[in-house]
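Let us practice reading a record.
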Amino acid sequence: MEKKLSSDITSFSIRKIPVSTQNKENILTDNYLDKIKILELSNIIDEWEKEILFSENGFYSLKGKEIENKTDKFALELNNFISEKVSEIKFEDSSSKIIANKIKEDKVTAIKVQMQLYEQQELSSWQIETYENAITSSISRAVLYKSNDNVISSSFQNGLSVLKLMSEKENWNSKIFNYRKEQYKSEFYYSIIKAFIEDKDAAAYRFFEKYKDSLFIEDKEKLETSIKEMKINVVAYNFAKELFSYNLSKKDQEKEINNIKDSETENAVRRYLSDFSNSKKKENEQKEKEANIKNWQEINEIIVQDVNKAYLYIDFSLSNEAIKSKKDYIKQIQKKGYILTDKKQFINLLAEVFEDIDMYKEKDISNYQHCFSADDYNFFINLQKIENLEFYKLNSDYNYAVKIMKNINLKTEEEKYEFINLVIASIAEYKKINDKEADIKERNKIFEAITERFKKESK
């Protein structure tokens, strides 16, 4: 500790004692101090360059058109900045100021050259991008107005004008310019013809025949294939539509199809006839569903007033199943005043629900009124309105119930019906009492209790 203190004192003393003639080389002369100040100035300029030019929002972050005329602005700012710093420095030797100003000029010039190069590159990229966008726009506009020959012609000429500007800008030779011109022409007419094809517009044939020689080979081949397919589909569609409208028998319809010489067209006709038939079937099914539901509503309304008149309201234009269900329904109401649930029908329909819920939601279940109690029928009606999340829970309960019923060997529809109904009622009762859904734990308790009950009853 004493040795360190002695050393510190000695060091301090040395700085206070005039330097001897033996240490003249360590004296900071005026000339040497000026050099340090010049070096410091250079460091400050470098720091400015780093912060102002290379920062996140600096000069080199500018892109495209936004950089236009920014070089002079930044260079002037740098020049003023350095000039201010030079004026603040007190040089001992007048020649040092000259050196400092020379450094300023060299630095500003060097930095400005780099900035100008960057500005030129960005503006050049912006120009090229603008040209390319203009060419793309000329094609897009022609496609939008593809049925207007005047717009197509003017759009094409605009595109050629842009290509000429690009040629001048990039100093293309005649070979490059002609290639780019042919490339543009192919893309231009390809896009229009393709748009006609997508619209199933017969104008695609006319345009293709008129401009096919302007297309590159690969573009031409693509369109030839598409137009051939389109032609087959248009001919087949119109043929099938007319044939379908005749409502011919299958045998007579087949005779007409066999007269088609081209196999591809024949296959397309069969496909469209199948589509028309399915669409018609769905349309008829929807109409019958709506009519059947409406007829059931009418019957239920009249039963409240006078059950004996209900037969008069049966729509005999509907399916035999619908007519039979309504007769049976009215008969049961007349005899007992209510409907008892057919357990087998209940179990079968419930299995159908969980087999395909989307199909079930579209199903007309109104004919089940003759074999379901009012509560059970409403239960199935509500299932057609069930939300996905609620359905997933119910589906899980159902699958678990099926598994348990198999394990405890429930065989009859009556037993299965009672088991499922008890599960549904118990879960609903829990929600009513607790004002919340039963979680997994509580649901398991419900299943365990019901399972034990059925085990005891089966002994």
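A brief commentary: The chain has 17 helices and no strands.
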